[in-house]
Design brief:
Length: about 325
Amino acid sequence: MDSADFMVLRRLCQWRQENRHAMLVTVVHTWGSSPRPVGSIMAMRDDGAVVGSVSGGCIEDDLIHRHTGTPWPGTPQVLTYGVDADEAHRFGLPCGGTVELVAEFDPDPALLTDLLASIGQGRLVSRELSMTDGQVRLLPADTAQALVHTDSLMSSVFGPSYRMLIIGAGQLSEYLATMAVFNGFSVSVCDPRIEYTGQWSVPGVEILTGMPDDVVNDFAPDSRTCIIALTHDPKLDDLALLSALHSAAFYVGAIGSRKNSAARRQRMIDYLDQPPELLQKLRSPVGLFIGSKTPAEIAVSIMAEVIAVKNGVVGGSDPIGSDPGRLR
């Protein structure tokens, strides 16, 4: 889960621990265009205070109007917005868009506390809500699965933030780390060169000074981890990338021109005895092709590709005729 969802659950838990009435609202289905994807959550207190989002704001306004100062039902409700063009316009949905929500009233604060503790310990948890009586079960989950909603059950998997490990603490890394933090990633930067780490200026980022291949192994990359090498130094990048490629990381990338990237792959085949099919996982030159030239623009292209892969979007191919020697 991203840090925004964790914030929603944490605030909801706080409200319930204070014996305030509060609801958890989840997007369970969308048809056509919609402002927020399935699984998005928000929490609302009985006085109309809101954290999180399920739309561009208009649905939130309606929920506040509908549920502030009125008795709340005891069992979960299914709410649908944007069935026709008039409602779509009224609630700020794109033409033809429809959003179906589940509103869950007064979740058990003890179970919310348990859920937050599990997430904080790095575990995936399946939260199962009975649509008939509102009872909740927390079960261990092996993988991050899509939300499931039926007439009798809603099941959501929650877990820790996605992680990004950046090899190299240069200017490009600072831009990329800033964007990754903004997008809810937990970011660590590895660089044994004190002349680089001593100048690091992005708050909220863990700085690691060991050799990158050791750091990657200690990091224990999983399916919610991406690893990106940005030093241009084979002594730092190559073995770290090799460890990353043998891990479960969902994204492994390295900066470099096409020529340098091809040379890196060949080194790994010739001197590190790696099979060519393993190197197909390596994304290099790293990032989507957007004609980027400056460190900030290159960071945008990398972050965009990471998010695309995370979201299961296939893309990023270079247009025919693009510069084969460019650096990204």
